[in-house]
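Project outcomes to date are best conveyed with an example. Our students and postdoctoral researchers have been running inverse folding experiments weekly, and each run begins with a structure described purely in tokens. The record below, which covers 394 residues, was selected by the lab manager from last quarter's runs and is presented without edits.
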């Protein structure tokens, strides 16, 4: 007998709740920032430790003002895809500015980095080709790879031996593309780009880096992981988001050689069949990139606050994963413990989010915090003190 869909989903949802895996979306009533207000806590301000607001640009006055002025100049929406009548001069300005910032030849905008990753593999690779992907790559890369006909190989996170094996197995393929996140978001781990680029060169493969958790704040001038390693000229394709450090509204891009970008404009389906970015986002992103490029002070504070938090937690005996990235994951192992600690911090006015299966492996539940340049030394002290008082809950 057929079970009704709604009945099945009702049971599945109940099951999630009973296992502490049901995600509840807290509603924010203030602008995004180091401190926010939530619907259900009213006037009380919470210290926000879980936004991708690495540079504090989500509500930066100059960025907000640029968006406001752009609404007057360009209006609200484009009501078209790029190739029909949806290309405003500011789209091209932003594409050129991203190329200049990343020191790449050309750039194509997408509605999101998810769309950029969803479109790129199918457009560039066919059945004669191969893609070799890190096992911890972002969901959008996994989905993008699924959509293409290339042979697929996977290597354990940052495992260069397994990557080399994949390269050997893919030797007969026409084009071999290695794809990695620049920074792995659940662990705060930076990709081994030196190892990857060296192997790519030896086996004649191309390298693609998704720098969503790096662009704007990692490497010299915030140009991202390729520049952190001094390997800008060895990375063939970079994708990234405007939805994290660079203002946090939305938008994504692919940057690289002119032929690659030109081909994506002809063939990438999320580009061809989805509306073009709101011009106000583009104008504001231009200001965000300018501020990021010159943002040495912001990056310095971000590094100092990150080290302060990581060190403070380690001194308390917590297991903190990753290496000096502002993603600071505190591993609790057990999902229920992560929820208890998060609830405790929340009662102390600090917003953190517990992550558990399927977002991270079973038994590797964690509280993932993200430091922002907008956080002060006192803010981080408060977080460390809260984790101290949470020790009885472990
Ligand atoms: C956040 C993220 C994305 C998605 O970016 P959006 O622009 O929000 O779609 C893609 N890849 C990685 C590695 C990310 O961290």
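After processing, the design step wrote out the following sequence:
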């Amino acid at each position: 007998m057929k079970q009704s869909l709604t009945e099945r989903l009702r049971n599945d949802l109940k099951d999630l709740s009973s296992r502490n895996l049901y995600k509840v979306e807290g509603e924010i009533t203030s602008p995004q920032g180091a401190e926010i207000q939530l619907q259900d806590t009213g006037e009380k301000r919470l210290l926000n430790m879980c936004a991708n607001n690495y540079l504090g640009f989500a509500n930066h006055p100059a960025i907000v003002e640029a968006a406001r002025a752009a609404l007057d100049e360009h209006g609200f929406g484009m009501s078209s895809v790029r190739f029909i009548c949806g290309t405003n001069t500011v789209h091209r300005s932003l594409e050129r500015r991203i190329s200049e910032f990343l020191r790449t030849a050309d750039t194509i905008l997408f509605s999101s980095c998810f769309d950029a990753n969803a479109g790129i593999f199918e457009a560039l690779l066919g059945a004669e080709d191969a893609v070799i992907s890190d096992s911890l790559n972002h969901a959008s890369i996994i989905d993008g790879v699924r959509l293409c006909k290339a042979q697929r190989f996977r290597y354990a996170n940052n495992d260069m031996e397994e990557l080399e094996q994949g390269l050997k197995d893919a030797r007969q393929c026409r084009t071999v593309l290695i794809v990695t996140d620049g920074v792995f978001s659940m662990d705060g781990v930076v990709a081994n780009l030196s190892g990857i680029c060296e192997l790519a060169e030896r086996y004649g493969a191309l390298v693609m880096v998704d720098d969503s958790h790096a662009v704007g704040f990692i490497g010299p001038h915030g140009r991202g992981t390729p520049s952190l390693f001094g390997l800008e000229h060895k990375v063939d394709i970079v994708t990234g988001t405007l939805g994290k450090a660079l203002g946090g509204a939305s938008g994504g891009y692919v940057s690289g050689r002119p032929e690659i970008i030109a081909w994506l404009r002809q063939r990438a389906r999320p580009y061809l069949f989805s509306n073009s970015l709101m011009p106000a986002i583009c104008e504001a992103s231009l200001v965000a990139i300018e501020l990021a490029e010159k943002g040495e002070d912001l990056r310095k504070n971000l590094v100092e606050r990150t080290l302060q938090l990581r060190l403070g937690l380690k001194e308390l005996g917590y297991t903190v994963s990753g290496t000096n990235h502002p993603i600071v994951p505190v591993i609790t192992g057990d999902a229920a413990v992560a929820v208890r600690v998060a609830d405790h911090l929340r009662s102390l006015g600090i917003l953190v989010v517990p992550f558990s299966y399927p977002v991270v492996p079973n038994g590797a539940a964690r509280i993932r915090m993200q430091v922002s340049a907008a956080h002060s030394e006192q803010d981080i002290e408060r977080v460390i003190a809260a984790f101290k008082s949470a020790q009885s809950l472990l």
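The radius of gyration is 22 Å. The mean pLDDT is 96. The training component of this project remains on track.
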